[in-house]
């Protein structure tokens, strides 16, 4: 069973993905979310755009397979939170669903292709994803673990792992979408 910290994070994530705000996740919600994430990439960045859409489709299929207990093609908040812990974040699915999105989004947001995210690139990326700069600015500082003024690929991946897998309420990755309890 997920910890209270993970439940909070997964509830924020559910709200973020529930694009039509009807309290249920549908295939349309996940496709729309993928389109929002793909906006981080330049129009000609077909590789990262394709990777984002593919990973969200994988995630949706996992939700259908493991969470849609009544077969209605929709995932409730409770089903989502339960399935995030049991299936989506399990080792056999985490890389292909969650980390594939993280890698593609970071690659797309690295507009100067130097292999790291500057503060401006990071804030612009999360602003595109609907996270206010007053949340993404402080998050950048928390995620820059070595304090060198940029977020490396390893630091970004560590933040994603923190967000999805850590039970520690003070883990730096918990601030990716703003403070826990404050949806993006």
From TrEMBL:
Domain EF-hand: start-end pairs: 55-90, 97-132, 139-166
Keywords from the UniProt entry: Metal-binding, Repeat
UniProt xrefs under InterPro entries: EF-hand-dom_pair, EF_Hand_1_Ca_BS, EF_hand_dom
Gene3D superfamilies the UniProt entry points to: EF-hand
SMART domains: EFh (SM00054)
Sequence intervals crossing the membrane: none
Pfam name, any one: EF-hand_8
GO molecular function: calcium ion binding
SUPFAM superfamilies, A to Z: EF-hand (SSF47473)
Name used for this protein in its record: Calcium-binding protein
Source organism of this protein record: Streptomyces subrutilus
């Amino acid at each position: 069973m997920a910890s209270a910290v993970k439940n909070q994070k997964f509830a924020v994530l559910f709200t973020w993905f529930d694009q039509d705000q009807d309290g249920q996740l549908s295939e349309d919600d996940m496709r729309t979310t993928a389109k929002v994430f793909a906006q981080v990439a330049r129009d000609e960045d077909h590789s990262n755009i394709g990777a984002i859409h593919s990973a969200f489709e994988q995630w949706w299929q996992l939700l259908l397979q493991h969470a849609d207990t009544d077969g209605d093609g929709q995932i409730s908040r409770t089903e989502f939170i339960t399935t995030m812990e049991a299936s989506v974040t399990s080792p056999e699915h985490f890389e292909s669903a969650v980390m594939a999105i993280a890698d593609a989004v970071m690659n797309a947001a690295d507009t100067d292709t130097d292999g790291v995210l500057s503060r401006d690139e990071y804030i612009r990326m999360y602003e595109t994803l609907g996270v206010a700069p007053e949340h993404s600015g402080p998050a950048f500082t928390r995620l820059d673990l070595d304090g060198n003024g940029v977020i490396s690929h390893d630091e970004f991946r560590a933040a994603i792992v923190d967000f999805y897998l850590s039970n520690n309420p003070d883990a730096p990755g918990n601030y990716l979408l703003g403070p826990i309890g404050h949806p993006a």
